[in-house]
Amino acid sequence: MSSRTYLVTGGAGYVGSVVAAHLLAAGHTVTVLDDLSTGHREGVPDGARFIEGRVQDAARWLDGSYDAVLHFAAHSQVGESVARPEAYWRNNVGGTIELLDAMRDAGVRTLVFSSTAAVYGEPGAVPLTETAPTVPTSPYGATKLAVDHMIGAECAAHGLAAVSLRYFNVAGAHGRYGERHDPESHLIPLVLQVALGEREAISVYGEDYPTPDGTCVRDYIHVADLAEAHLLALGAARPGEHLICNLGNGNGFSVHEVIETARKVTGHPVPQRTAPRRGGDPAVLVASADRARQRLGWTPARPGLAGIIEDAWAFARHVRTEHA
């Protein structure tokens, strides 16, 4: 792909920062738009132009010089979305409406959207394909599904070329770019906080699921593999088409497997305690990424759990040193 100019909304966040870094490494020109409400200034890659601002105001900066937009800006905490659904509808859906209007007015006709497996809700069968029923169980998942519907309509009515990438469990780190969520809710960084002595123990929510060891099984994908899929998606976008692809390894790892692997990687004991099941946690959530392989030419290069945790561990220790 020859050099292009891209706007990355939410590019100071976890996934957005890694994608922005990959775009720059591929020789592209990148502008990051982020209001830093959950992103971090240190997450903006060197070489990217940075605009501190809201996606709702993208029309201020978006013009015909951009070849495409990669859209990551969103509230993304499932629990918070249950407690404050209005904030999620206003930001995730309202913000994307403003972005699509701005893109149409500026003549920017390619979009890659950060979607989520949360749109599927409780899976009826695994591995999950893109044709599975979409019955989200949280306002977060519902807002992402609503945006997918909006994008599909924009493609049909106005010729937008768009790809929605539905992530499963993103993990790992890419150099100095990794997870900095506050509060943290993802299993691997929580386990690593225990290894660092920042948390007493890791809670295991339910050990009586119909899985080999009784704990939930999830599909973990390395954030760098995810980023590479976004670059491929830019090349696969076609005018008038809304392509939807699941992104995952197609393999599942249980909570116990994650904890035990983290013990081996870190050399720390990582105490654990059993807690009651959480409502809405499916026993198994694993992706079928066949469509991404066929349409994007994408294959995960880092499928091993140990490698994912090793990279996350290196980043966690870097952040601790950074804040010492």
Principal-axes geometry comes out as: globular
Characterize the largest beta sheet: strand count, sense, and whether it forms a barrel.
Answer: 7 strands, parallel
Tell me the fraction of residues in β-strands, as a range: 15-25%
Radius of gyration over all CA atoms, rounded: 19 Å
Helix percentage range: 25-40%
Mean pLDDT: 95
Termini gap: 41 Å
Q: What is the succession of H and E elements?
A: EHEEEHHEHEEHEEEHEEHEEHH
Structural class: alpha/beta
* Low-pLDDT regions: none
Strands across the major sheet, in which order? 3-2-1-4-5-6-11
SS element count, helices: 9
Provide structural commentary.
This protein has 324 residues and is of the alpha/beta class. The protein is 37% helix and 18% strand. It contains nine helices and 14 strands. Helix 1 packs across helix 6 and helix 7 packs across helix 9 (305-322). The N and C termini lie far apart (41 Å).
Set down the secondary structure blueprint.
Blueprint: E1 5-9, H1 14-25, E2 29-34, E3 49-52, E4 68-71, H2 78-83, H3 85-106, E5 110-116, H4 139-158, E6 161-167, E7 169-171, H5 187-195, E8 202-205, E9 217-218, E10 220-222, H6 223-236, E11 242-247, E12 253-254, H7 255-266, E13 272-275, E14 284-285, H8 290-296, H9 305-322
Parallel strand pairs: 1-2, 1-4, 2-3, 4-5, 5-6, 6-11, 7-10, 8-13, 9-14
Antiparallel strand pairs: 9-12
Helix pairs in contact: 1-6, 3-4, 5-7, 5-9, 7-9
